[in-house]
Design goal:
mainly alpha; two-stranded antiparallel ribbon; 11 helices
Length: 219
């Protein structure tokens, strides 16, 4: 409990140092735009000028580089997981705080004018690091929905919605509010996708390529 000054080698440090460090570390990790970095390093162009302009794996796939898309998804998930682990190592309860930093860092990276991704892959990494069962449920819902519907955005939103339910089901009520906040943010970032889903115009995976045009989904 941070109720006063904390001892540090005979001295004292302010009680807010560890929480602030966890939050900032999480933000810095989360705001690394791996999709943008990988596409630029490999000569695939500026991801913000391709397809939907999103920095996530789905938009990377529009470059035709499946390997880059897979790498982006993995790295976006890893940065969320690593942030949680670092936060937990800093102090008891630091994991969730670092998760907040990482998630919002991905959504709103300062160096990209606060225009980031939609958080699904990063949320997956956070879920795995917080509780592997929640991470597994997230993955099953995500992959299963995409396999059935071929709609990327629907898979991401379904997984996000299931996440706080999974936490409650296994008695991790300490994670329910955290996950619920993340779920609401994922839905907010997908508000345009929701509009297209309701209108029946949300593209399916591969449809944009078949039609010879780019169509926006989630990243």
């Amino acid at each position: 409990m941070f109720c006063g000054l904390l001892p540090n080698n005979g001295g004292f440090v302010a009680p807010w140092i560890a929480p602030a460090t966890a939050l900032l570390t999480g933000y810095l990790l989360g705001s690394i735009p791996f999709g943008l970095v990988l596409t630029r390093l490999t000569g695939a162009g500026d991801l913000r000028k391709i397809g939907s302009g999103n920095i996530g794996a789905t938009n990377v796939l529009r470059t035709g580089r499946k390997g880059l898309a897979a790498a982006t998804l993995i790295l976006d998930a890893v940065k969320g997981a690593v942030a949680v682990l670092i936060g937990a190592a800093l102090f008891d309860g630091g994991g969730p705080l670092a998760a907040v930093g990482a998630f919002f860092g991905h959504l709103y990276p300062a160096w990209l004018g606060f225009r980031g991704g939609k958080g699904v892959a990063t949320l997956f990494g956070i879920a795995v690091a917080c509780n592997w069962i929640c991470g597994l449920v997230f993955a099953v819902a995500w992959i299963g929905t995409i396999a059935v519907t071929r709609i990327s955005s629907l898979g991401g939103m379904t997984a996000a919605i299931v996440l706080p339910v999974a936490a409650a089901a296994i008695g991790r009520f300490d994670l329910v509010i955290l996950f619920l906040i993340f779920t609401l943010m994922v839905l907010w970032k997908h508000r345009e996708n929701i509009g297209r889903l309701l209108a029946g115009t949300e593209p399916r995976i591969g449809a944009g390529k078949a039609a010879g045009k780019d169509t926006p989904t989630h990243g």
